[in-house]
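Assess this today:

___
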Amino acid sequence: MHQPFSLWWAALAAADETMQGGPLVPAWLRLFSAHLSSADNVRLRWGGDLGESAELRRAYSALYGRYFSRALLASRLGFTDFVPLRTNVTRLPNGVTIRRTAKGDIPDWIAWDPASGSYCLCEAKGSLTGKEPAFMTGQPTCVTEGKKQFGRVEVLDRSGRAVATRNWVAANLWSTDSRRRESVSLLWDPPSDGGTFSKGESEKHADGIRRRRIANIALRLGRVGLLGSARRTGGVLVRVKASPDRDGMPTKVSASHEDDLLHPIERPATKPHEGVYAAALITPFGIRPILDGGDLAALNAASKSVAPAMLFGLSVDALRAGQTISEPWISGQGIAAPDGLSLFDLSRVEIGG
């Protein structure tokens, strides 16, 4: 199946992974444009093999595999609230525990599936040297190995009962200018045993994993008390206004047939977007949470600079139960995802305090 795919999903995944994982310098701000093929403006294709050495190639392939896999799971399956799994034990505020039970690699995230009201364990894979026929038949080695990782963890509720999860491997076979083949993204869902939730239980669990994810982000935004009340943390909230804009839509598609392009699964927004965010400025030099008037002044200065800069935000509405965006807003200016995470090209949006 050939479908258009906005790179804003991958950029948002990279931003959130950076924010939750620690105050790392966001090198990904330039990597997408530096690595994408300039010879193919339609398919998702890299310009080269991502690095000169085998070690760098593996590192970049895995890094992009993580970003694009998460982007696909969010955009195509609607998963939200991705929480990275810790090495041995990960605990959610509602008493759910994800625990390693065997040696070896474990899945990358636990996330939430609003459609089924259940947890999902998710594993990301990126492959530069894999074989296209193996991906087309659903049996590449990376998927086989990824499926094994779900058996190395257990998901238990507060009482110690096993919880049923949807388990997904998202694997990407890369295409490059020298490896001219179809790029393939494969989503595979091995089943899982365990108890399911009633509607009331599902709502409580959805709130629990959302709180954990927001707590991770709030820490990096310098707002540990953000969950208590967005307006009582003392930090500046940033108002963003963005317009629908087809020009500059950062989209690559893995499609070669015109008919596939006429019926995309996602389209640029047709209405303006306005939201209020707890936010951070992201530049090639690092991440700066917007906490006071000085930070807001720096944000406004960066918006007028020619240097690349992004605004990462967590919607205030996402902090209020049941008030999240129902559909993603995507344009050439940025993306506002259903779970309240947003990323904007700072030079192309209107901002205010």
